[in-house]
């Protein structure tokens, strides 16, 4: 029996991303292929040429990359609820810090403080009505998620405490409706990034153009943020050090796409400072408060 072997045309593409659960870089490689044969015909009924097949494979590979990027982005966004809000020390690590002196940034930080105060007042009101002091809040938008009742008595509209002692409102109760009606404060990271067009991820390809990838930059879900010592200031802002991330990736031979490639850390009314400069302001503020307390 005679066997006929047809030539194979194939390409490989590699997608790399940062796992939001572990922070580790992962990758997946996929092969796209077809054979050149008289049975593989185009729209006009004639056999496909190698060029036509390559074009189709490239289209399939691009679609696969887009789907993988969307999946990675969705996975990163899903890992939100249980995240612990970073300390100022953790949030600023590796980021660029700016003193806020004017412009849009000072409007944003004052608005953010006002929103946090509004949400905190609503939480306090709900906690007072329930007669509780220990509450469990969302680190993403500040709303009240659950409460810890005193003693063994639990409000009938709430579930039994979990292993941490937190009770959550039961479905289809007035308290569930009350909790769901809360309006949290906007995520400062999202608002800041959208206002100043700060890239929160970079897309790249390798030297050969075969591997494509996407990864987040900055502290996940807290890529941008505000620092303030009191309602009246001083104020500061942190954002990912995008140029540094781009330079590091380019040093590894990767080609970076826009908008990250040419992004500049320049914001109206803001002056870049070192982390130690902010630490000094914090220390001075604490010292002044101690002196004020000692004088009373």
Tell me what you see in this structure.
Residues 78-86 have low confidence and may be disordered. The chain has seven helices and eleven strands. It has a five-stranded mixed sheet. It has a four-stranded antiparallel sheet with strand order 8-9-3-11. It has three domains: 8-78, no CATH class; 88-107 and 186-295, no CATH class; 111-180, no CATH class. Helix 3 runs antiparallel to helix 5 (188-196). It is α+β, with helices and mostly antiparallel strands.
What summary fits the major beta sheet? 5 strands, mixed
Helix content range of the residues, please?
25-40%
Order of helices and strands: EEHHEHEEHHEEEEHEEH
Average pLDDT taken over every residue? 85
Q: Note the beta-strand portion.
A: 15-25%
Give me the secondary-structure category: alpha+beta
In what order do the strands lie side by side in the largest sheet? 2-1-7-6-10
Shape: flat
- What's the gyration radius in Å? 27 Å
Number of domains: 3
Q: Short description, anyone?
A:
With 296 residues, the protein is an alpha+beta fold. Helix content is 37%, strand content 22%.
